[in-house]
Design a protein that fits this description.
16 helices; alpha+beta; single chain
Length: 473
């Protein structure tokens, strides 16, 4: 790693040719994955390039908004100080908080939306461990919510979540639905909007990002004929959990999943003893059903058994064994780890976004998504180079290191980030510990109150998990 650019630059020349206005335009070690050329490209596409060079050029403001996502506990001035700490104070601008706020407003949300659009997508390769299963790229989609400031504009657009009591609900919320590559936890695509929208309509906006050769994992919230039909129409395969009462519990078999009208016609035909030909023009999908029981045994010997039922478009039991598919469904939880990285490791635990306007919320959230994706790209590239599974590299350690490189103005050279992430002490174990934590309500109506379930919140118990397929009766 060479000396910081602040030491290498010619101060007199920088002051003379006014190139100092561009010095804060960096993101430390992540500048390699979000280079100035890419930022200029999205600014040009969004029509946000300045006609003349200001003290706060548009490129610098983009990096400032991104840095806000790295330093979420800092105000505007402290974020700017972090961006300029590696440069001599005499050769960088010293804007006020009001000037920085006005620069954000001039920039708008579109450049950050385009930046995320350039960065999103699968990042794993055929040589990246855990990305593919039998030639299929594992992806999953699910939704989550993020809190935004309680301003009149945000309440009018995003609204508060439903309250069961007469007390006012907490902060307004944005609902985010993402399509994640399970092996790397990278964002293939993401959409967000008011929290009153359900996850399924948002997921439909992600269908364009599905490709043949992908295996889409989803939970029971997406159980329905239309969603299954639209996902299969993209050419991707599906492995979805369905409601236990929807299908007969006869192990792995083929079934017809229909829309309501076709289902009613098929039901009447079956009730009349299947006399005559099967009704014509049925709208149906042929899927394979896999039923199995999961038994979790805690360290104290107590057991808990539940039945899981999956449907999949992978119909050949020899090419895609039922036992492997049952174990594979567990990979759907990688999207929860991705949301943890976005909402806790990056944004900060229980933090509310800072923007009090709708466009500001959109700009800030696109910046967080772009930052997260750049971090995942960096981790995957470093892991692939080192021959490691990306799951073993810590996003938390990567973000801490990036923040230090921003403050020290170390740009373009990923050697420090590589050395820190692959250090043996910083690597996660080859296999995760088998643990469970009781499900509970983590956030009630108050943004600071927690519903602790018999003191078990956060208490993880070592368990042994077994899977047993249930055969035909």
């Amino acid at each position: 790693m060479g000396a910081p650019l602040s030491v290498q630059c010619d101060t007199a020349r920088v002051v003379r040719d006014r190139s100092w206005v561009w010095l804060p335009g960096h993101l430390g070690a992540l500048t390699r994955w979000i280079p100035p050329a890419l930022v200029d490209e999205v600014l040009e596409a969004a029509g946000r390039r300045e006609q003349r060079v200001r003290l706060l050029p548009a490129r610098v403001v983009v990096y400032f908004v991104l840095a806000m996502g790295l330093f979420t506990d800092c105000g505007y001035r402290r974020v700017w100080t972090a961006l300029t700490a590696g440069w001599p104070r005499t050769v960088v601008a010293d804007p006020s908080a009001a000037a920085l706020r006005q620069a954000r407003q001039r920039l708008g949300a579109k450049p950050l939306a385009l930046l995320f659009d350039r960065l999103r997508g699968p990042v794993g390769t055929a040589g990246t461990p855990g990305v593919f299963w039998r030639g299929l790229r594992l992806v999953a989609w699910d939704g989550t919510c993020l809190e935004v400031p309680d301003s009149a504009a945000n309440v009018a657009c995003f609204s508060r979540h439903a309250a069961r009591t007469t007390r006012p609900a907490g902060y307004p919320q944005v609902r985010l639905t993402a399509l994640v590559e399970c092996g790397t936890r990278a964002l293939v695509d993401a959409v967000f909007g008011p929290q009153q929208y359900t996850e399924l309509p948002q997921a439909r906006a992600l269908l364009a990002s599905l490709r043949p050769g992908m295996l889409l994992l989803a939970d029971r919230g997406y159980d329905g004929f239309e969603a299954l039909r639209e996902a299969c129409a993209t050419g991707a395969d599906v492995l979805w959990r369905v409601q236990a009462g929807r299908l007969l519990p006869d192990g792995t078999h083929l079934t017809l999943v229909t829309d309501r009208r076709s289902g009613d016609r098929l039901t009447r035909w079956m009730r009349h003893g299947r006399h005559g030909p099967m009704p014509a023009n049925l709208t149906a999908l042929t899927l394979r059903v896999i039923s199995y029981q999961v038994t979790v045994t805690a360290a104290d010997g107590t057991c808990r058994t539940s039945t899981v039922r999956l449907v999949t478009s992978l119909l050949d039991p020899r090419r895609h064994p039922a036992g492997e598919l049952a174990a594979l469904y567990h990979q759907r939880w990688e999207i929860e780890s991705a949301y943890y990285g976005l909402k806790v490791s990056l944004r900060g635990a229980d933090r509310v976004l800072r923007s009090r306007t709708v466009e500001g919320v959109e700009q800030e959230l696109f910046a967080l998504l772009a930052l997260y994706q750049a971090g995942r790209r960096a981790i995957t590239e470093i892991a692939t180079t080192a021959g490691l599974d990306p799951d073993r590299l810590s996003l938390t350690i990567a973000l801490h290191t990036v923040r230090l490189t921003v403050i020290n103005a170390h740009t373009g050279d990923p050697a420090l980030l590589h050395a820190v992430l692959v250090h043996p002490r910083n690597l996660a174990p080859l296999r995760r510990r088998s643990r469970t934590s009781p499900r509970c309500v983590k956030r009630t109506l108050s943004p600071y109150a927690y519903n602790k379930t018999k003191g078990s919140v956060g208490r993880k118990t070592t368990v042994t998990t077994s899977i047993a397929l249930t055969g035909p009766p």
